[in-house]
Design a protein that fits this description.
By secondary structure, the protein is mainly α. The chain is about 75% helix and about 0% strand. The protein has one domain.
């Protein structure tokens, strides 16, 4: 399930980054041609937000987002498992906060409209925050369970 979720998020991130690139290229071309296309800036901005948030969640799953590399390379055994447990706990708490406050932001801003495309709701942008928070919490909980197992001597996940 974790790998499938990561693959979905990577796909969404790549699609969002592709939309970002296309919007920027359209914006550059339209400026050189003297044509005003007003929606490209917002599309670029909001697709970039989606790509960053999906990528951030994937980096948490790959443990490339937040760690103490110097310590984790120097420590072994129970000390390393303890460090990983602390790191995973911090990331899990942060993820839960992102999920909670992301839901609050979506509820507050759902009905706001884009300036250049009034039929689009800002909620479609803001919903990326609780999605990122939920997936980061899932990834972190999975890592935390592995770290605790490793700390208790029931298998390694570091």
């Amino acid at each position: 399930m974790i790998r499938a979720l990561e693959k979905i998020q990577m796909t969404i991130g790549v699609i969002s980054l592709s939309i970002f690139l296309a919007a920027i290229l359209i914006q550059i071309a339209s400026r050189h041609l003297g044509i005003a296309i007003i929606w490209t800036e917002e599309v670029a901005k909001y697709s970039f937000i989606w790509s960053v948030f999906m990528g951030a969640a994937v980096m948490v799953n790959r443990r490339e987002h937040f760690s103490f590399d110097f310590l984790s390379q120097k420590l072994e055994g129970k000390s390393k498992a303890t460090l990983m447990t602390v790191i995973d706990s911090i990331v899990l708490l942060f993820s839960i906060a992102l999920l909670y406050y992301g839901i609050v932001a979506v509820q507050n801003f759902w009905n706001y409209n884009w300036a250049s495309i009034p039929s689009m709701k800002m909620g479609y942008v803001w919903i990326s925050i609780p999605i990122m928070g939920a997936s980061m919490a899932l990834y972190s909980a999975n890592h935390l369970a592995g770290s605790v197992r490793s700390l208790l001597g029931r298998g390694a996940n570091t």
